[in-house]
């Protein structure tokens, strides 16, 4: 562990490459399912967030994705055409729309999640509890800057 206290550029480049490759592999597992439904990674990100935050508002979805309204609208229109999501207006403020996965959307999410879960579960299962906790802590620190 001592060598990690003095990370060199080459070590950081290697870590960044591992993050890239782990992301690529985790999302390539689900490529066949995405292709089957004619959706891409952007659609998958939206489906994942809607599943995790059922009833999320459009505004909160924009904040979590850090994309433009135009980009999100394109993806949402595709998901509507594919009959994957539904909207419900807020009871208190009808200008606010909440997004939900319908049954088809939940099915697609589960198909993708089950594939990705296998890779992640296997990696976690083959790690010590200390490694898992440390990994989670490091990921949170990367995310939060």
Highlighted features:
145 residues, mainly alpha, three-stranded antiparallel beta sheet, 68% helix
Beta-strand percent range: 5-15%
Main sheet specs? 3 strands, antiparallel
Strand order of the largest sheet: 1-3-2
How helical, in percent, are the residues?
Answer: 55-70%
Radius of gyration from CA coordinates: 18 Å
Q: Which structural class do you get from the secondary structure elements? A: mainly alpha
Give the overall shape, derived from the CA principal axes.
globular
Annotation, overall tally of beta strands = 3
Task: Please tell me the overall pLDDT.
Answer: 92
Total DSSP helices: 7
N- to C-terminal distance: 22 Å
Weakly predicted, low-confidence segments: none
> Topology as H/E string?
HHHEHHEEHH
What does this structure look like?
The protein contains seven helices and three strands. By secondary structure, the chain is mainly alpha-helical.
SSE topology:
Layout: H1 9-28, H2 31-36, H3 41-52, E1 56-57, H4 58-65, H5 69-81, E2 85-89, E3 97-101, H6 103-125, H7 129-144
Antiparallel strand pairs: 1-3, 2-3
């Amino acid at each position: 562990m001592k060598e990690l206290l003095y990370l060199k550029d080459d070590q950081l480049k290697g870590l960044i490459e591992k993050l890239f490759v782990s992301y690529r592999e985790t999302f390539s597992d689900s490529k066949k399912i995405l292709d089957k439904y004619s959706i891409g990674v952007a659609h998958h990100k939206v489906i994942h967030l809607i599943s995790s935050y059922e009833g999320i508002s459009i505004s909160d979805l924009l904040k979590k994705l850090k994309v433009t309204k135009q980009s999100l609208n394109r993806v949402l229109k595709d998901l509507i055409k594919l009959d994957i999501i539904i909207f419900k207006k807020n009871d208190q403020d009808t200008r606010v729309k909440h997004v939900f996965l319908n049954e088809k959307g939940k099915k697609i999410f589960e198909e993708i999640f089950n594939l990705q879960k296998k890779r992640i579960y296997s990696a976690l299962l083959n790690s010590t509890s200390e490694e898992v906790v440390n990994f989670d802590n490091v990921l949170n620190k990367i995310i939060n800057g």
